[in-house]
Specification:
about 200 residues; WH_DNA-bd_sf; Arc Repressor Mutant, subunit A; mainly alpha; HTH marR-type domain-containing protein; WH-like_DNA-bd_sf; two-stranded antiparallel sheet
Length: about 200
């Protein structure tokens, strides 16, 4: 039985089911799909939504545990990854990665240094720059939270066959490209959505 006709209504799936959010097919081209395939497509979108919500919860838990905001966490992850790769991180590099201004990066680094999360030291080759490093205590906290989560994600990906991984890679890259494309209605300044909401 299809989700649209099921007696047990699933609100999470229904908000992603074009038969419910777009019953006339104005935006989503689904008329040619058999009901069982349409159910499967909705299941894929529902799984993506569940993953995003889980990722948001995990991120919030990690930030709450370390008492940091999202930008701070991204900064620490970047510095840790750079250290593991043998790369010295400067404020300019970090600002470029986070896409924030020099003034904002200075305020952030002041705050992180005061909280004991990072250290700043002279750059060995550039007297105008300083090297940013994560303190041992913060590095250990990051490994205890982010590191363990990443290890479990790696195990899930490693359990797939090479062919399955290629399908997942192509699918996720296609989704990422869609997110980066400007919608026609946005370019025209229209307030009318071009696709159903997914959140």
């Amino acid at each position: 039985m299809s989700k649209a006709n099921s007696t047990r209504w699933d609100p999470a799936a229904s908000m992603l089911d074009p038969r419910i959010v777009d019953p006339t097919g104005s935006y989503v081209r689904y008329a040619g799909l058999p009901p069982e395939e349409l159910d499967q497509v909705v299941a894929v979108l529902t799984a993506i939504k569940a993953w995003r919500e889980s990722e948001d919860r995990t991120s919030l838990e990690s930030r709450s545990y370390m008492r940091l905001n999202e930008t701070d966490m991204r900064a620490l992850r970047f510095v840790i990854a750079a250290k593991n790769a043998g790369v010295l991180v400067t404020a300019g590099m970090l600002a470029g990665h986070l896409q924030i201004s020099t003034a904002s990066i200075t305020k952030m680094l002041d705050r992180l240094e005061k909280a004991g999360h990072i250290t700043r030291s002279p750059h060995p080759d550039d007297r105008r720059a300083v090297v940013i490093a994560v303190t041992p205590a913060t590095h250990a906290d990051a490994r205890a939270t982010i590191g363990r989560k990443h290890a479990r994600r790696f195990d899930v990906a490693a359990a797939l066959s090479p062919a399955e991984r290629e399908v997942v890679i192509g699918f996720l890259n296609s989704l990422a490209e869609l997110e980066e494309e400007a919608e026609p209605s946005e370019e025209a300044g229209s307030a009318e959505p071009t696709s159903p909401q997914t959140d």
